[in-house]
Write a structure and sequence with these properties.
Layout lengths: L10 E4 L8 E6 L10 H15 L4 E6 L4 H12 L3 E7 L8 H8 L2 E6 L1 H4 L2 H8 L4 E3 L6 H8 L13 E6 L3 H9 L5 E6 L7 H8 L9 E3 L12 H14 L8 H13 L8 E6 L17
Parallel strand pairs: 2-10, 3-4, 3-6, 4-5, 7-8, 7-10, 8-9
Antiparallel strand pairs: 1-2
Helix pairs in contact: 1-2, 1-6, 2-3, 6-7, 9-10
């Protein structure tokens, strides 16, 4: 189906004192495409296929001002000859974020709604009353989950890992990983949102009944909330780049890698564990930072 010119996803090993030289591999899904980066493509691809099958020419979806999903949807729709609509959380600002500016450039029609109205997704779908194919925020659906399950296919011998660690927003990716993980593997999620207390139950909604195992999600690595990036996080991102040459973003991946480091320090992992970190991409969020804030 694809004409996105997807690139090879590589698995790289990292050996560094900051991770106490634990056995850690990183699945670099951030390399798959410069715009439809990381897990965004996996969560979108089956939605696009289904929309095409149904004869729908417009995809409508939801997201915030810094949503990688919004940008990825806009670009993918442009490539596949489809129209796109973005329902954006919050009043329209005087200056659009880099993310929303790019989404507009790729042809997405943006509609801004208050946070109160935004929470009524079903009401919004009825209000627009258009012949759109609707995709939930972050691709949250069974289609998104099944697409995310394909992420581990990018790995050679994924069964060798004892732990698979990923970022969590809506929970779609971790649900997909749980769907295909083996019995001996623990899938761990690092939530990027503050006080997202319903995340575990959201994940379970996507999984079939025979897989209703409580997901392991840590909620204390958000650094103040979604997209919050205090100086200590920026310092960590620069240190990580200096040590292992892996670029991260201020929303998801930087907090993911920090969590792995902290969990190692807390002896959550055993020295003989083999850990796979899923780099979920989405580096465009860093464009909101002042020039030269980051060393990469």
């Amino acid at each position: 189906m694809t004409s996105l010119d997807l690139q090879e996803v590589i698995t790289s090993s990292i050996h560094s004192n900051i991770f106490q030289n634990y056995d850690i591999d990183v699945l670099r899904t951030d390399l798959i495409h410069p715009v439809v980066s990381g897990n965004k493509w996996y969560k979108l691809k089956l939605h696009i296929e289904e929309a095409k099958k149904m004869g729908k020419n417009t995809i409508a979806t939801f997201g915030g001002a810094y949503s990688n999903h919004i940008l990825a949807t806009a670009f993918a729709c442009k490539v596949f000859g489809m129209d796109s609509v973005g329902i954006i959380r919050g009043e329209k600002p005087a200056q659009l974020s880099h993310t929303l500016q790019a989404a507009q450039q790729y042809g997405m029609l943006l509609h801004f709604v208050s946070r109160y109205v935004y929470d009524d997704k079903e009401g919004l779908k009825k209000y627009f009353n258009s012949d759109c194919f609707w995709v939930n925020e972050g691709g949250f659906s069974e289609l998104g989950m099944l697409g995310a399950a394909d992420i581990l296919k990018e790995c050679d011998n994924p069964e060798k890992y004892s732990h698979i660690v990923c970022s969590c927003g809506t929970g779609t990716m971790i649900a997909g990983l749980l769907h295909v993980a083996k019995e001996h593997q623990q899938v761990i999620g690092i939530s990027a949102l503050k006080s997202h207390t319903g995340l575990e139950s959201d994940v379970l909604k996507l999984l079939p009944s025979h897989q209703q195992k409580q997901p392991v999600i840590f909620h204390n690595y958000h650094f103040g909330g979604y997209a919050k990036h205090p100086p200590e996080l920026i310092n960590w991102m620069n240190l990580l780049w200096q040590e292992v040459q892996i670029p991260t973003d201020i929303v998801y991946s930087s907090k993911l890698f920090f969590a792995v480091k902290d969990l190692i320090e807390q002896q959550y992992f055993k020295p003989n564990d083999k850990i796979l970190i899923i780099h979920c991409g989405g580096l465009q969020g860093n464009l909101s930072l002042p020039a030269n804030t980051l060393n990469f």
